[in-house]
Amino acid sequence: STQSDMGDPIPSTMEETLYRQQTQERYRSVSAGIQEVVRRQPTARNVTLIAVSKTHPSAAVQAVYDVGHKDFGENYVDEILEKASQLPQDIRWHMIGHLQSNKCKHLAGVPNLYMVQSVDSERLAAKLDSACAKVDRELNVLVQINTSGEPSKYGVEPAEAVALSRFVIEKCPRLRFKGLMTIGRYDASPKPECFQVLVDCRAQVSAALGLSPDDLELSMGMSADYEQAIEMGSSMIRVGTAIFGERTYPVNL
After folding, report:
1. Beta strand 9-10 with 2-3: parallel, antiparallel or unpaired?
2. Does pTM top 0.85 for this prediction?
3. Sorting pLDDT into bands at 50, 70 and 90, what band is 8?
């Protein structure tokens, strides 16, 4: 039996093949769903799908990569480090989980880390900038906004969006400010309130810093609400379960 990189035996080649096929099928279905929403929405921007592979083995990422997908998201630094070392180097890794400042140096060392979407304080931005300087690289970042006001969620208050974005642009030469991200609260209405808050934040940030709103990414929307997110202007959506299925592999961090 084969060992997955998360340490669990995958019983047989037949099961592995079935797992690959099911994962690829789910990915194609999500991808088609996104394209359909974009097609119906004449004002929709180009939408990047981030396939969130947290707690799933490298084999799952490889399966989706093999049908042409390049953007993958992880919540834990340890998982990016492990998977990036095992998988193709042209994958674009997105760190979407809470980042502790003591992990910045490890993360900055991943050559194909494409973006950190969870910059939520000046301290973290400064640490990340310094870690990037040490390995002589630049890094795309999004500022994370807590649009729901829930204490359990990370991100700066909407009122702080301009200040943190300005700090990244003016004080962090190695970081490339690319836009805003939120997790938000699930809301089945056609115009979820948290998404509207992020759209408003982008308008404030672009006005205050002399940027074009169209040049700033909005990372919002997940498996259950990406349709509303795209309709409201999201340019990045983060989908995990709808592609990779329920979490079945223990993660040893």
Report:
1. antiparallel
2. yes
3. low
